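Q: Predict the bound structure with (2R)-2-hydroxypentanedioic acid.
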Amino acid sequence: MTQRTELLEQLRTIVGAANVLTGGDLSPYEQDWRKREHGKSLAVVRPASTLEVAAVVKACATAGLSIVPQGGNTGMVVGSTPDASGTQIVLSLQRMNQVRTLDGANLTVTVDAGCVLQAIQETCERAGYLFPLSMASEGSCTIGGNLGTNAGGTQVVRYGNTRELCLGLEVVTPQGEIWNGLSGLRKDNTGYDLRHLLIGSEGTLGVITGAIMKLYPLPAAQLTAFAAVPSLEAAVQLLGLAHQHLSAGLTGFEVMGKFALSLVSKHFPQLRVPFQDGEEPAAAPGRPKQGTAPSGGSEAHEVGSVGAPYCVVLENSDQESEAHARSCFERLLEVAMEQGCVLDAVVAESISQARALWHIRESIPLAQAQEGLNIKHDISIAVSRIPEFVRLTDAQLQAAYPGARLVNYGHLGDGNLHYNVQAPAGADAEAFLRDDEKGVNTIVYDMVDRFNGSISAEHGVGSLKREKLAQHKSPVALDMMRAIKAALDPQNTMNPGRVLATT
Ligand code: FAD
Ligand code: 2HG
Ligand code: ZN
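A: Predicted complex:
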């Protein structure tokens, strides 16, 4: 028997033959969500417990074979799929999907790493608690992947990234040892915080098998508004007003450019996008009172007929009552209209209307994927400087790549833009990526540097941004990262070539 056949036999003994996949269509595990790479694994292994994960990792380490931890495989940077060598083991955590315990007094929930994010949200909600991490991929992504990437999402403006929501981890080290750090303590200054080292390490320092996460009380009321704004500057002004009027009640603030919304209308015509191309609001949610602002009806028609350059989804979560939430929200929108930073707005009258408005925002990534391959930039810039960044970068890109289509949207509340670039209309998207991705990236990332921003706000580095990271991160920081990787994973078997180049 060759060493690889022997290893496969060992893995079958550990997790059961049915959970060592070597044939059939493995593309859900071997191809990334964006279809940027299609790798080839030696096997996909699906353990059901932490002990099984530890045994699998130990066996692979002994055989010198590398492991790619995988959750829902929804990552954006090609980090959870194998390379083309046919020698890597994809370690899928999907069978580890139990909510272990919920401690109401401690406001914590302890979960297996393979739990799907939405399942955690729903379990907590049924128990009367809010688990606020939220993103469009929540029906498929896992908490292990969220922790591995330190995912952001749509509630960061209030609750922070996944890191801020995590109180402890259970981890299998690259050598197959188990570290149980599931203390659930809010204070613990006993040396280096290994939890924070593992969070955002994208599977390169160990496999997360369990986590203890923070919970919050469910809000008494949650309201969603969809506002048309005359410019990105106005959106930033509206954000300032929202902080002022809603304070901690501001739980979502997403911006969407006109072209991004037009892709949603084009690919999902059943979703009626307010204030674009003459469309009226979905299911006619209520309009705010408008004070001395231009009247809603005529202004709405005018905005609709030209299409607002940007729209914003805002969410207000209130601990008092629906009436209180509504009056705060309406006052905010009134003031915003008086100041001219909102052209028109609708406030959802029901949960289903709120969902419909959020659904528009959350459909942008899928609509963009339907439009064809694209170049993504997940960047963060100080909120105050975003309008200037967009103005300068738009101009440079249009000069260098006439007709390139800018799909600009994202989590403006926390300074994170998805400043994506789609090939010119009718152009061959594959050829555009092949010939122009490098040049486009150089323009965008050089500008990000000029604005002291980050080239990866929430998606991570994976293999797609590895070279860019080496160019844009401080050499001192990179040296420290390499030292940490070498100390924890000297054999370099844990997701090699992701985040850092293999030397
Ligand atoms: P995977 O894609 O399977 O893995 C991602 C990385 O984490 C890989 O490097 C992998 O090796 C590592 N990993 C996975 N599981 C573990 C584990 N148990 N232990 C150690 N490492 C592990 N991201 C955001 O941040 N915000 C968004 O708003 C957002 N919206 C999205 C919307 C759509 C439609 C899609 C498709 C993606 C979106 N994403 C977003 C990206 C993606 O969903 C997140 O990065 C998510 O956290 C990945 O989770 P996953 O379980 O799919 O991880
Ligand atoms: C989102 O916020 C995701 O919708 C995906 O982070 C971003 O597709 C993208 O560029
Ligand atoms: Zn995002």
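A: Residues 33, 68-76, 79-80, 93, 113, 135-137, 141-142, 144-146, 148-149, 151-153, 202-203, 207-208, 365-366, 458-459, 462, 495, 498 surround flavin-adenine dinucleotide (ligand 1) (CB under 6 Å).
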